[in-house]
Design goal:
Blueprint: H1 2-22, H2 29-40, H3 51-56, H4 58-63, H5 70-84, E1 95-100, H6 107-119, E2 125-129, H7 140-143, H8 157-164, E3 169-173, H9 180-192, E4 194-196, E5 202-204, E6 209-214, H10 218-221, H11 239-253, H12 256-259, E7 264-267, H13 273-292, E8 297-300, H14 302-311, H15 322-339, E9 348-354, E10 357-362, H16 373-385, E11 394-395
Parallel strand pairs: 1-6, 1-7, 2-3, 3-6, 8-9
Antiparallel strand pairs: 4-5, 7-11, 9-10
Length: 407
């Protein structure tokens, strides 16, 4: 029998070689574009697809990750479309934005989603924590140390990152903490679209999107009846009044010439109870997809989602602890029960909340198919359309352009 199997293998290999010799392998335009994209970090593949279609459905794609901030997503999408349509100043970056709002409402998440949407990977997000650049001597790390100083050969952290990946989203987190000299660097980037490092090399920022986040005015932005955020003293303020207060705070901290170079200042709202529950739904959907890959599934009641939402939100970090809450309340006990053999292939786990605790029970039905990306986007867009989100505000400092808010 072993001899027969060997003969069959030899015959199969011979047949494969003959078939391969007859088949002419063709390299397509898409193959070349993919290789160039991987090598250079430049999204050449975008040029081979209907990018206009992609840009027109930008809101739906971003909504699948950012909940409760649809007007911020709209404002950002419009600005990006203006840039891609060739209506922006060709000397300036592809876009420049300030995201304002409390912690944990989606500012960083929207930046990540934008990087993935525009450049097909979250790796295209270049992030800087500006609390690390509060002292004067730390500013040189962005463009490199002067000749003769330690670190001159290493180059600048900012200039090196953008030189290696010119098509990127550059995020300056908590920009209000940066040393004043940092703003001199940003002024050149925002006005000229380029920056010269300590070694005399000019770095092109015209294909980069510049985003700065800030908690300035967070107290004014906080809304009543929100999970984890409370501001009874501001109850009844209109969005216009809130934006006016926020802009007043902005002008106290940032120079007019800096603010005037920003394309959009986008105000992110605090998240309501229902919106945070929907974020839990999206995170659980990710867990469900991972379980479906193992031929299992999971469903949560609304009570279970609200319990996780309550446990995973606080006044300091907003919705950021949600993922840890899901790990602690859902994934940890579930993983133990899977290892104990309670849940096997074909199992559907039904999760409910009883007396303040999550309870796991055996469900019935068929294992669903994993979600497709386009359906996720449509689901998220429909979800947000049905929300009574009120109105958020966005606009450049000189005018009152209507827009959105999200973090």
């Amino acid at each position: 029998q072993e001899t027969t199997l060997k003969e069959q293998r030899v015959q199969a290999e011979k047949q494969w070689e003959e078939d391969s010799a007859k088949t002419v392998q063709q390299v397509t335009v898409q193959d070349i574009a993919d290789v160039v994209s991987m090598t250079t970090g430049v999204p050449v593949s975008n040029l081979t697809e209907a990018e206009t279609e992609k840009l027109l459905r930008m809101e739906g794609v971003l909504h699948e990750r950012v909940i409760g901030q649809d007007e911020a997503v709209t404002a950002l999408s419009k600005a990006i479309r203006r840039s891609r349509a060739g209506l922006k100043d060709p000397k300036r970056p592809a876009g420049s934005f300030i995201f304002l709002g409390p912690s944990g409402v989606g500012k960083t998440e929207l930046s990540k989603a934008l990087a993935e949407f525009l450049f097909n990977s979250e790796d295209a997000l270049i992030s800087f924590d500006m609390s690390e650049y509060m002292e004067k001597h730390t500013v040189s790390r962005l463009i490199g140390s002067p000749p003769g100083y330690v670190g001159f050969d290493e180059g600048g952290q900012l200039t090196k990152a953008v030189r290696q990946r010119p098509y990127s989203v550059v995020l300056f987190d908590e920009i209000e903490k940066a040393h004043p000299d940092v703003f001199n660097i940003l002024l050149q980037i925002l006005e000229e679209g380029r920056l010269t490092d300590s070694q005399g090399r000019t770095v092109d920022f015209r294909n980069a999107v510049i985003i700065m986040t800030s908690n300035v005015g967070a107290r004014e932005i906080a809304q009543p009846n929100t999970l984890g955020f409370s501001a009874d003293e501001h109850a009844g303020l209109s969005d216009k009044e809130i934006q006016s207060r926020v802009m007043a705070e902005m002008k106290k901290l940032f120079r007019p010439e800096f603010l005037n170079r920003i394309d959009e200042i986008i105000v992110f709202k605090s998240l309501t109870d229902d919106q945070i529950v929907k974020i839990v739904d999206l995170m659980v959907a990710d867990l469900r997809d991972r379980m479906i890959a193992q031929n299992m599934s999971i469903n949560l009641t609304e009570a279970a989602c609200r319990l996780i939402a309550k446990e995973g939100t606080d006044t300091t970090f907003g919705a950021r602890p949600l993922r840890r809450a899901i790990q602690r309340l859902l994934e940890d006990p579930l993983s133990e029960e899977i290892l104990e053999g309670k849940w096997t292939a074909g199992s559907i786990v039904e999760v409910d909340a009883v007396d303040g605790e999550l309870v796991f029970a055996q469900g019935s039905g068929e294992i669903p198919a994993p979600r497709k990306r386009d359906s996720i986007a449509r689901e998220a867009e429909l979800l947000l359309t049905n929300f009574d989100l009120g109105h958020a505000s966005s606009g450049a400092p000189g005018g009152g352009a209507a827009g959105g808010a999200a973090d």
